C-alpha cells in the first residue's frame, strides 16, 4: 500500500495543478503567468513516461544480454571490460551524451532516447553480472547433477536466484531515465522538463516548481511500482 502513495500523489498533482494558479500567484505575485499552460501536464507526463518505459525496456534487454554473455565461459574474458564500462560510463554527464547525439539525430525525442538507453544499460549490466556471479556454486552443481543443459540452468536456476540484484538494476535504470528525460527538454523533447526549462529561461520559478513536483512524484511512482514487481519476482 505504501508503494502506491506516490502514484496517488502524482494523480492528485495532475488533477490539482491546472487549477492552482491562485496559489502560485500568491507565492509569486510579480509573475503575470504563474501557471504553465503551453502543454497540459497530463500530456507531458504521458510523453515523459512513454519515453522512459521504451528506453528502459531496451536498456534492460541489452544489459541482460551483455551481462549473461560476460558471465558465460566463452565470454569470461570480457568480464573485466564489462565491469570497467559499467563503472566508468556512469561518470559521463547526460548533457554530454545529448550534445553528441543532437548533431547526429537532430532535436527532439531521438537524442534523448539514445541517452536514456546508454545510461540505462549500465545499471542493468552491472547488477546482472553481480547477481549471476553471486549464484551459489552448490545450486549450479545441483543443476548439473540433475542433467540441466546450459540454457535450462540459466533460465531455471541462475536468473531466478539473481533476480534480486537484476531488479535493483532495472529500478536504478528507470529512475536514471526519469531524471535524464527531464534534461531532454533542453534539446526539444516533450517531457516534464519542459516547464522547468522554460521557467529557467524565463526566470519563472513557478514553472520550475510545477515541473519539479511532477518529476519527483513520477520518479517515486516508478520506483514504487518496480519495488512491488521486485517483491513479486522474489516470491
TrEMBL record:
Cellular location(s): Cell membrane
Spans traversing the lipid bilayer: 44-70, 82-107, 113-140, 161-187, 207-230
Keyword Transferase: no
Membrane topology: Multi-pass membrane protein
Annotated source species: Luteibacter sahnii
Domain ABC transmembrane type-1 stretches: 45-226
Protein family according to the UniProt entry: Belongs to the binding-protein-dependent transport system permease family.
CDD domains: TM_PBP2
Name of this protein: ABC transporter permease
Keyword field contains Ligase: no
Keywords carried by this UniProt record: Membrane, Transmembrane, Transmembrane helix, Transport
Amino acid at each position: 500500500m505504501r508503494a502506491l502513495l506516490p502514484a496517488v500523489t502524482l494523480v492528485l498533482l495532475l488533477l490539482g495543478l491546472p487549477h492552482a494558479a491562485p496559489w502560485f500567484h500568491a507565492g509569486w505575485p510579480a509573475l503575470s503567468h504563474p501557471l504553465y499552460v503551453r502543454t497540459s501536464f497530463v500530456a507531458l507526463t504521458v510523453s515523459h513516461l512513454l519515453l522512459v518505459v521504451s528506453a528502459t525496456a531496451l536498456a534492460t534487454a541489452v544489459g541482460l544480454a551483455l551481462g549473461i554473455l560476460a558471465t558465460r565461459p566463452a565470454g569470461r574474458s570480457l568480464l573485466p571490460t564489462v565491469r570497467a564500462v559499467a563503472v566508468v560510463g556512469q561518470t559521463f554527464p547526460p548533457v554530454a551524451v545529448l550534445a553528441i547525439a543532437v548533431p547526429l539525430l537532430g532535436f527532439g525525442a531521438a537524442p534523448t532516447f539514445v541517452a536514456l538507453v546508454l545510461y540505462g544499460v549500465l545499471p542493468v549490466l552491472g547488477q546482472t553480472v553481480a547477481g549471476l556471479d553471486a549464484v551459489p556454486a552448490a545450486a549450479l552443481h545441483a543443476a548439473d547433477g540433475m542433467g540441466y543443459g546450459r540454457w535450462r540452468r540459466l533460465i531455471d536456476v541462475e536468473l531466478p536466484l539473481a533476480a534480486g540484484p537484476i531488479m535493483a538494476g532495472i529500478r536504478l535504470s528507470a529512475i536514471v531515465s526519469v531524471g535524464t528525460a527531464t534534461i531532454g527538454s533542453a534539446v526539444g523533447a516533450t517531457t516534464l522538463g519542459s516547464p522547468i526549462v522554460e521557467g529557467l529561461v524565463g526566470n519563472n520559478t513557478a514553472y520550475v516548481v510545477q515541473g519539479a513536483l511532477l518529476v519527483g512524484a513520477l520518479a517515486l511512482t516508478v520506483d514504487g511500482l518496480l519495488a512491488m514487481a521486485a517483491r513479486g519476482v522474489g516470491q
